[in-house]
Amino acid sequence: MSERPSERYYRDTARFYEPFATRPDEPFFKEMAKRFNSPILEMGSGTGRITLLLAEDGHEIVGVDLSPEMIDIAREKLDSLPKAVQSRVTFHHGDIANFSFDQKFSLIIIPSTFKFLLTTDDQLACLKCVRNHLLDDGVFILDLYPGEAFDADASDTLGPLEIDGAMVTKTYKYSNDLNSQTRTWDVTVTITYKDGKVEKIETQSITALTTPREGNLLLKLAGFEILEEYGGWDFTPYKPGSWRRILVLQKEG
């Protein structure tokens, strides 16, 4: 399999993910884990931000991620936690579109990473993996971004933040291609050291634009039905025009 754009992006920027991460989704997943219980599988677990949060709440959880750099950070964080928490967590390096575990889960979550699957084949393969690993009465939570398809080309700057004694700024430039239904992210990380030296890391990622209608079709083909639908992490109901679409799903039939 050829390298996905997201692999290069996280290889270049993994060490800067945590300091710049926003956390509005954490109360949502804590509540959902409480409702649907463990074992839990997080697909696209990254640095373990959500995985470890749920483990600290007492849940057994498995995290899988394609980026070895992100997994290394997650495991380092896990090593600093109490042994009781460590015993509830397993991290795997793997592809969310192609994996197999000898375990089924009460709750499977994909926070913000489904969009890194750029082809219909990979999207359906991912959903098939979910179905194969979900208990018959289990629940699957999928986070989509329909609003990105209608967003004009834009830019954004985060920081500066002090990281390991240096000042770091991240600049994003977004551009959409509606013919290929993709969004290109050109990212520049600027690191200014105490001695005045400046280092720039320029990288790129590409994500898929998935409209609500297309998302519904993918889920229908994969054998899922919608239980609940939200337009934000605060449990706001989804409506046309919502930027985010958070789906709580179960197996059909």
Shape summary: globular
What would you say the CATH architecture of the largest domain is?
A: 3-Layer(aba) Sandwich
Number of domains: 2
In whole angstroms, the N-to-C terminal distance is 34 Å
CATH fold descriptor of the largest domain: Rossmann fold
* The CATH H-level homologous superfamily of the largest domain: Vaccinia Virus protein VP39
Identify the strand order in the major beta sheet: 3-2-1-4-5-11-10
Structural class: alpha/beta
Strand content: 35-45%
SS field, number of helical segments: 8
Low-confidence stretches: none
So what's the CATH class of the largest domain? Alpha Beta
Please write the string of helix (H) and strand (E) elements: HHHEHEHHEEHEEEEEHEE
Q: Tell me about the largest β-sheet.
A: 7 strands, mixed
How much helicity do the residues have?
A: 25-40%
Provide keyphrases for this structure.
2 domains; four-stranded antiparallel β-sheet; 253 residues; 8 helices; seven-stranded mixed β-sheet; alpha/beta; N-terminal domain of TfIIb; Rossmann fold; 11 strands
Structure in a nutshell:
By secondary structure, the chain is an alpha/beta fold. The protein folds into two domains: 5-146 and 210-251, Vaccinia Virus protein VP39 (Rossmann fold); 154-208, N-terminal domain of TfIIb. The protein is 29% helix and 35% strand.
